[in-house]
Amino acid sequence: MLGRSFLKEGTMGKRSLVLFFAALSSVLLATSAVQAQENAPDYAQALEKLRLYSPEDPSARKYLGLKDKDAQFFINQIDAELLLIEIFSMYCPHCQKHAPEANRLFEIITGRKDLKDRLKLIGIGVGNSPFEVKIFREKYSVAFPLLDDRDSAATNALSGVLTPHYVVLRLHKGGKIDVLYSDAGGFDDAEEFLKMVLSL
Amino acid sequence: MKRVRNQRLLSVILCVAGIILLASEAPCISKAFDEKIFDAGDLKPIDSTLKVKVGDPVPDFTLRAVSGGTVTLSEYRGTKNVVISFVPAAWTPVCSDQWPGYNIVQDLFDAYSAVLIGISVDNIPTLFAWTQAMGDLWFPVLSDFWPHGKVAQTLGVLRSDGTSERAIFIVDKQGIIRYIDVHDINKRPPLEGIIEALEKVQD
């Protein structure tokens, strides 16, 4: 009805009509994409402002391109083009169950020459102390860097987050972060999840 | 002129698009376990007065276990240190993310010759459903439901609304209370607090 009245009044030609429906379609597509991720927040601003503590393990610091142990850093200081973040908790049964598949994802990424320097994986133990993160790392032999939340900065920034929650970020050189994916829950198949991540 | 109109139309469309996109932002939808969690909001951190102190002999109790039968505290006398973890209520946010963490550190408890007992004032069927969602727990979960909260009341951790505090008691092999942490109900006590206390009991 809206389009019809525009046409009747002669204020909108064919090109405009095409433009209108193209814009409307893109809006609907974007809306459904958000809904497909079950309305999970993307945490873009929270992650941009979040300050984490660099890991104790020198090899983890090297992987992330960080120098000083226990120094605070912003996520966009991590040396990667794409960053996958698993927001987890030692106390979360789903995260415990999911740990082997997350490890498998890391193995696949680091085993691919085209990806190992481009795409990096970290975990943020929301609400977890360094001791609790250490327990999780040791129990599940996690080889990718797990960062603690000793000052509750992640808890406050990601209020209400459901663990595990995965976020995929594109890190730009100027410090800008684009959130490409954000969703609660783990994944059943690391290969398939990686394919999805690389298609974003 | 036509171009100007088209530009105006495009601006309107983009504005509408922006509004629709903003409106589509919604609170996170919980999954599985989380969809069943009741958020009681921010509560008074502590709402009871302890009736025991470190160094006191612990009052004995017998409670029904979710797995069947009963557990009597004095059964561990002479053999095990006992960590008692009171949680306020089943199906609440912090509680649901507390015992599953203890569930992966049985070896730490073993290292200090300690057992863990979980207690809540919920009834057995509720505790059964709730703990099923946590996976297989290695420690007994006991119901202090009837007479309601009697054990919690004896120790002084029953809140005025009938729930219990989020509290940790450590009882040594002689039945003496060696550690008490009546924690802010809104926060989870860090695991290292329990482990450090067990180290001291061991000494």
Architecture overview:
The complex is a heterodimer of chains A (200) and B (203). Chain A has two domains: 2-36; 44-198, 3-Layer(aba) Sandwich (Glutaredoxin), CATH 3.40.30.10. Chain A is 43% helix and 18% strand. Chain A contains eight helices and seven strands. In chain A, strands 5-4-3-6-7 form a five-stranded mixed β-sheet. In chain A, β4 (119-125), α6 (130-139) and β5 (146-147) form a beta-alpha-beta unit. In chain A, α5 packs across α8. The two termini of chain A are 36 Å apart. The longest helix of chain B is centred in the first third of the chain and has 22 residues, at 2-23. Chain B has a seven-stranded mixed β-sheet with strand order 2-1-5-4-3-6-7. Residues 1-5 and 7-32 of chain B have low confidence and may be disordered. Chain B folds into two domains: 2-34, no CATH class; 40-202, Glutaredoxin (3-Layer(aba) Sandwich), CATH 3.40.30.10. The chains are: A alpha/beta (200), B alpha/beta (203). Chain A binds chain B through residues 11-13, 15-16, 19-20, 23-24, 26-27, 30-31, 34-35, 38-41, 89-94, 96-97, 127, 129, 131-132, 135-136, 139, 160-162, 184-185, and chain B through 2, 5-6, 9-10, 13-14, 16-17, 20-21, 24-34, 97-98, 100-101, 103-105, 133-135, 188, 190-192, 195.
> So how many helices of chain A?
8
How far apart the termini of chain A lie comes to 36 Å
CATH top level of the largest domain in chain A is Alpha Beta
CATH class of the largest domain in chain B: Alpha Beta
Major sheet of chain B: size, sense and barrel closure?
7 strands, mixed
CATH evolutionary superfamily of the largest domain in chain B = Glutaredoxin
Mean pLDDT of chain B, as a whole number? 84
Strand content of chain A: 15-25%
CATH architectural name of the largest domain in chain B:
3-Layer(aba) Sandwich
So, the CATH homologous superfamily of the largest domain in chain A? Glutaredoxin
Question: Structural class of the helices, strands and pairings of chain B?
Answer: alpha/beta
Shape of chain A: globular
Average pLDDT number of chain A: 82
- Indicate the multimeric state: heterodimer
Total helices of chain B: the number is: 7
Rg calculated over all Cα atoms of chain A:
21 Å
Strand arrangement across the biggest beta sheet of chain B: 2-1-5-4-3-6-7
User: Largest chain-chain contact?
Assistant: A-B, 39 and 37 residues
Could you spell the SSE succession of chain B in H and E letters?
A: HEEEHHHEHEHEEH
| Count of domains of chain A | 2
* Overall SS class of chain A: alpha/beta
